[in-house]
Each structure stands twice: as C-alpha cells, then as structure tokens.
Design goal:
The chain is α/β, with parallel strands linked by helices. It is built from 12 helices and 10 strands. The N and C termini lie far apart (about 65 Å).
C-alpha cells in the first residue's frame, strides 16, 4: 500500500558526486519540514555516488533511489525524478550543494501565505576550494520578498556573471502538470535558466525570498566553470536562441525588449572576449582594429584589468551580479553602441 503523498518532493540529480552527495542529502533529510520525500536519480555514475545514497536510504525511508542505465545529463535526471514525485511542491537540490535546515519550511510558508506557485530564495555562492567570503546571488532586491517576472528575470541574468538563471525554486507540481513543463535537455548548461523562464512565461506568480538559505558550490569542472569563456558564451548564445523561440508566442513588447537587451549583452561580451583573445594571442593589429570599430570596448578592457588586479590582491569572490557590476556596466555601454 502506497504511503500518503508528502508535502514536498526534493529532486536530486547526481553524476559522479560522491565527494559532495552526503552533505547534500543530509541537508535535505535534516529539514525542519519533515513531510518530504527526497528523490535521487543517479545518472549512471562511475564512482561511489549510488553506494553513498544507499547507505543514507537504509537509515531514512524518505530517500528514494533510482538509477539511469546511461548518462543523459541533469535535465533528463531531473525529469526522471519529477515523473516519480508525489509532493504538492517540487524542490530542486544539486548533488554538490546543500540547504539550511529551515529552508523548505520557510519557502512553503511564504508561498502559501502569498499565493505564489514559484518561489526561490537567495543563495550563498562559494568557491571550492574556499577562498575568501561567499557571495550572495540576489542583487538589490527588496526585503523580505520581491516579485519576479520574465522581464526582470532576463535582465538579471546577463553573460559574464552568475545571474538569476541559477536560482533553485520551489514550484507547485500541479502548475508544472497543467502547463506540461519540464527541464529541457536541449538547453545544455542552461536547464535552470530555461525552466524558470518557461514557468514565468506561463504566468507563474513568482516570488524571491531575500534570505540566503541555499548554498551553491562553485567548483572546478562544474557546469558554470567547466568551459573557457568563449565556449561558455557560445552556450549562452545557444540558450538565448532557445529562449527567443520559447518567447515568440508571447507578444509582450516589454518581453521582446528584455530579450533584445540580453542578446546585445551577449554580443558585447563576445566582442570583449574576441579582443582579449587577440591581445593574448599576440595580434595587436587585429586588437587595434577591433578597438577602432568599437571604442566602447576600451572601458570594458580597463574594467576587466582592474578586476583581475583585485583578484590578485584580495581573496577571490564568486562572479555574481554585485561583484561584477562595474564590468557589466561597461558591457551595457558596448551593447548600447552596438557590438556588431
């Protein structure tokens, strides 16, 4: 006989996450909100990921384990977990992150009180290995809660910074079922960004809780740090194209303008990175030609140099919106003049 459905289902996709998985799962199982299930989908790991999960599941029946026969990526693993979820609410936890004990209780309470179907909290983002203080994700949001819509979301997720695309929401499962929403495998390295955008496009009443209860580990080799800047920008551009296709059925002028601003920022960042590549590759004539065509690249180059000097003089901080605001402002100036 199947047990009563829990209030929250926590989805945990995992691939070769043995080093961190114990912390992630223990943080989920230690929530003050005990009416939960934790669904781990092992995405064909080659390390001890599944064995570690089995040890914890033997002590807590709320932890449900599944294995994929072949590696399909985080989107497919999350979708597998979502298909098995029974909770009223769906939460997302990456296998190398962790949560404060009161997180789910606070998110559910605020969402139900305010009538939201999508809610995310602020995050502490820290480098691994630890270097200096962690940084917070949300930037200049009012307290205690702020409304999030698609336009604000797009503006808060620029290239060259960790933006709101990394938010880890709590969502009503009935809303996802009503609109047939899921994580898109084609959104490689941008699954979270596209998923949240689609929720907002379909009218999810969404809130941001200005309290950091989620701990995001920025580690070498992760989806955020695993590519060089030009390859990362190519991924961002591909996600932008997908976002534009998904937004096409929604004829909102403000949405269209936000998409155009984000595309211009991506093009500006690409021009900046091409300039750096020319300078570092010993091609001064090519770099001079780029600067002649786009003089606004010079302030961006200066801002980037100052940031590099700052990183050498003081402990590194994660590249969040707050940390990169001067550099991002220089990208906006390039975008306003046309990155070409």
């Amino acid at each position: 006989m199947e047990s009563r459905a829990p209030l929250v289902s926590v989805l945990v996709p995992a691939w070769n996450a043995a080093r961190w998985l114990g912390d992630a799962l223990r943080s989920a199982l230690a929530q003050t909100l005990v009416d939960i299930e934790v669904i781990l989908v092992d995405d064909a790991s080659r390390d001890a990921t599944f064995a570690i999960a089995q040890q914890l599941a033997a002590r807590d029946r709320r932890l449900r384990l599944f294995r994929r026969a072949t590696n399909g990526g985080p989107a497919l693993a999350r979708n597998d977990a979502l298909a098995r979820a029974r909770g009223t609410w769906i939460a997302v936890l990456d296998a190398d992150d962790w949560m404060a004990a009161e997180r789910l209780a606070q998110l559910v309470a605020v969402a139900e009180q305010e009538g939201a179907v999508w809610i995310a909290d602020d995050q502490w983002i820290e480098l691994e290995p630890p270097s200096g203080r962690p940084a917070r994700l949300l930037w200049r949001e009012p307290e205690p809660v702020a409304v999030l819509d698609a336009v604000r979301f797009l503006d808060r997720d620029p290239p060259e910074a960790i933006g709101y695309g990394t938010l880890k929401p709590l969502i009503r499962r009935s809303f996802l079922e009503q609109h047939e929403l899921y994580w898109r495998p084609e959104a490689v390295r941008a699954e979270d960004f596209i998923f949240t955008l689609e929720c907002l496009l379909h009218g999810a009443p969404a809130l941001l809780l200005n309290q950091p209860l989620y701990f995001y580990r920025l580690r070498a080799g992760s989806q955020v740090t695993g590519l060089d800047p030009l390859a990362t920008l190519a991924r961002v551009a591909a996600a932008q194209e997908l976002a534009e296709r998904l937004c096409a059925p929604f004829p909102d002028p403000a949405l269209k303008a936000a998409l155009a601003r984000r595309r211009a920022r991506i093009e500006a960042a690409s021009a900046y990175r091409a300039l750096l590549a020319a300078l570092r590759g010993g091609r001064p004539a090519a770099a001079a030609a780029m600067l002649a065509r786009r003089p606004a690249l010079a302030p961006a180059l200066a801002a980037g140099a100052l940031e590099a000097l700052r990183r050498r003089l003081i402990p590194a901080r994660p590249p969040t919106l707050a940390e990169r605001q001067w550099f991002l402002a220089s990208l906006d100036r390039i975008a306003a003049r046309g990155a070409g």
